[in-house]
Write a structure and sequence with these properties.
- The protein is built from 2 helices and 7 strands.
- It is largely without helices or strands and 619 residues long.
- Among the domains are: 2-32 and 39-192, Immunoglobulins (Immunoglobulin-like, Sandwich); 194-316, no CATH class; 327-375, no CATH class; 545-619, no CATH class.
- Strands 1-7-6-3 form a 4-stranded mixed beta sheet, with helices on one face.
- The longest helix is centred in the first third of the chain and has 25 residues, at 2-26.
């Protein structure tokens, strides 16, 4: 009976002390400026309540004041094994089911239309058990002030000089039954930095494998729920009133959310130290092949959009990104090719395309692609200013593996594509295209004077011989191969053609530049081979009928008189009816001497041709 009475008295005193203590605390509203609002928000969390484990307890904030206020309840401390939660934590009178003996500290925050907030606490004591399940509350019997009214270092033990910076709400961490050990840490009441406590001595600090950073713990870790899961700043939208805890289903952010401008400093650490798909989300499966230097392309302000790409960190091919989906790809007018972008383009200067990473592999082009699709002088090098005027495509003359000389093309060149005024020597100069061979005749004439584009040889044109060098020999061309030479029945001679012939009229030969040097003839050459009245002057109409060769009577040095021939004259070559005086008239050949007897007989009446002085008979 006495024991029961003591228990009742103890519980009554505990209730009285808590009511007085939290009534005093509730007067400390954390109001901001209300800009003249007469109904400033003021939180009233209600009186302390007693309950038993397994019971539902209704909290009550209906005594809170303010215009258009909103409520937000949070369990700031509970017995160690408790899984109690405040249901409908934004209601004025939510319900919490207490499940373990001990003290439950509930925090209420209210906010009015002017965004003025106020905070208050209340306690639920379950089964009359103190936080440490040991000391009685009787020694605080009758107290009405806040903890710090006594625990100020003078009247009673207060904060030590090494106490962390915090608000004056002792009860949120300490138990009114047992000051130490600390029953619960409400990080919302702490004003100092995390590292002040979390230094490896007072409280756990960074593990050995933590990323290198100078940031404070709470920049990434949520002190209200679990320390092991880090959420970078800016990864969730900021709420005016925090949820009861960050793992509620209505959290709207995610660790890989939209980023923010307050990513904590990480010193010399690299992004991949965290963003490795173990500690934090890293590259996804369809990320382009790159090094692990995330910051080369991404920034913490907007992770999803890589604005500046450091192509030196890219390992994959250009088309992995530049496909008009991830990044800009080939425009609609781009040449058809399977080549990678960097064959023609550079990342430092996309245009002109000639700045690419090497010789362009033209084999990657579609067979139907025209050279001029690129080689137009804008996209890629085009015709030089001194290029011959032509509408032909480049590969008619040029090859992709060797631009010069031009005869490396797929040819033959279609000369019909040339402008009418184009000169052969513009290309056929021995450099751009095949020119005159070393043994070609010296001439200033254009190629097409003698040659045709359909068949280079033989030279069939009407050649303008006036273009030749004066020292050029006819036989340089007229050798029967390059150009027409001596016909089979031509007289054997080493004389140049132009001695007898002219370039304007080849025949008759007597139009040459002569006189003909008969010494160039072969010894066996017959005069009549040329001197036949057609090729060259032959026997005159009044010439004696004879089959003898000209040089029997005549010489090449002096045609007349005939008596200075190479003789003696073979009179047997004469026609039998030939009269001697036809020649022997004193002009053409020796005639009668002055001492000759007077006679009208023909010479051969008395004389013979082989012995002129022997007389056959007298008349």
């Amino acid at each position: 009976m006495i024991i029961k009475l003591v228990d009742v008295v103890s519980r009554t005193l505990f209730l009285l002390i808590c009511v007085l203590l939290f009534t005093a605390c509730s007067s400390d509203s954390t109001n901001n400026s209300n800009n003249g609002n007469t109904e400033t928000a003021k939180a009233e969390a209600g009186a302390i309540q007693f309950s038993s484990a397994g019971q539902s307890v209704q909290l009550d904030a209906t005594q809170s004041t303010g215009t258009g206020i909103r409520y937000h309840w949070t369990l700031r401390s509970a017995p160690g094994d408790s899984v109690a939660r405040i249901l409908d934590f934004e209601a004025a009178a939510p319900v919490v089911t207490v499940d373990q003996p001990g003290n439950y500290v509930a925090q209420l925050i209210v906010m009015d239309n002017a965004h003025v907030t106020s905070k208050d606490f209340t306690v639920i004591n379950v089964d009359g058990i103190a936080a440490d399940n040991s000391q009685s509350l009787a020694n605080h019997n009758g107290l009405t002030q806040r903890c710090q009214s006594c625990h100020n270092g003078t009247d009673a033990v207060g904060r030590s000089i090494v106490h962390i910076a915090a608000t004056e709400e002792c009860v949120v961490c300490h138990s009114i039954a047992a000051w130490t050990p600390v029953a619960n840490i409400d990080h919302n009441e702490i004003r100092g930095t995390c590292s002040y406590c979390h230094d490896g001595e007072r409280a756990i600090t960074k593990p050995a494998n933590h990323i290198t950073t100078t940031a404070e713990c709470n920049d990434c870790h949520n002190a209200g729920t679990t320390f092991t899961f880090a959420i970078m700043p800016g990864s969730q939208p900021v709420r005016a009133l925090d949820d009861e805890d960050d793992d509620d289903d209505d959290d709207s952010g995610s660790p890989s959310g939209g980023g923010g401008d307050d990513h904590p400093p990480i010193g010399n650490a690299m992004c991949v130290d965290c963003h490795n798909n173990v500690i934090e989300e890293g590259k996804d499966a369809n990320h382009i092949l790159t090094t692990d230097l995330c910051e080369a392309c991404h920034n913490t302000n907007d992770w999803e959009r890589a604005v500046t790409v450091d192509h030196t960190q890219v390992i994959g091919s250009c088309s992995t990104c530049h496909n008009n989906d991830i990044a800009e790809g080939k425009p609609s007018g781009h040449i058809v090719t399977t080549a990678e972008c960097n064959v023609c383009h550079m990342t430092s200067d996309w245009e002109p395309a000639t700045g690419g990473g090497g010789a362009f592999d033209h084999s990657t082009l579609s067979p139907a692609t025209l050279c001029t699709s690129c080689h137009d002088g804008v996209v890629a090098t085009g015709k030089t200013p001194n290029h011959i005027p032509t509408t032909a495509d480049c590969d008619v003359c040029h090859a992709t593996n060797g631009w010069t000389p031009a005869n490396g093309g797929v040819g033959p060149f279609d000369h019909s594509t040339l402008a009418p005024g184009a000169l052969c020597t513009t290309c056929h100069n021995g450099t751009t295209a095949t020119g005159l061979s070393p043994n070609h005749i010296l001439t200033t004439a254009e190629c097409d004077v003698c040659h045709t584009t359909m068949a280079w040889s033989p030279a069939v044109g009407t050649f303008d011989h006036s273009t030749l060098d004066p020292a050029t020999l006819c036989t340089s061309c007229h050798d029967g191969t390059t150009a027409t030479g001596l016909s089979p029945n031509h007289i054997p001679t080493i004389e140049a053609c132009d001695v007898c012939h002219t370039t304007t009229a080849w025949a008759p030969a007597n139009l040459g530049t002569g006189p003909f040097d008969h010494s160039t003839l072969g010894p066996a050459s017959l005069c009549t081979t040329c001197h036949n009245g057609a090729t060259a002057s032959g026997l005159s109409p009044n010439h004696v009928p004879t089959t003898a060769q000209c040089d029997v009577c005549h010489t090449t040095m002096a045609w007349l008189p005939a008596t200075i021939g190479t003789g003696p004259f073979d009179h047997s070559t004469l026609d039998p009816a030939t009269v001697c005086m036809t020649c022997h008239d004193g002009l053409i050949a020796a005639g009668k001497s002055l001492a000759h007897i007077q006679t009208s007989s023909d010479c051969d009446v008395c004389h013979v041709t082989n012995t002129w002085l022997i007389l056959l008979r007298l008349p």
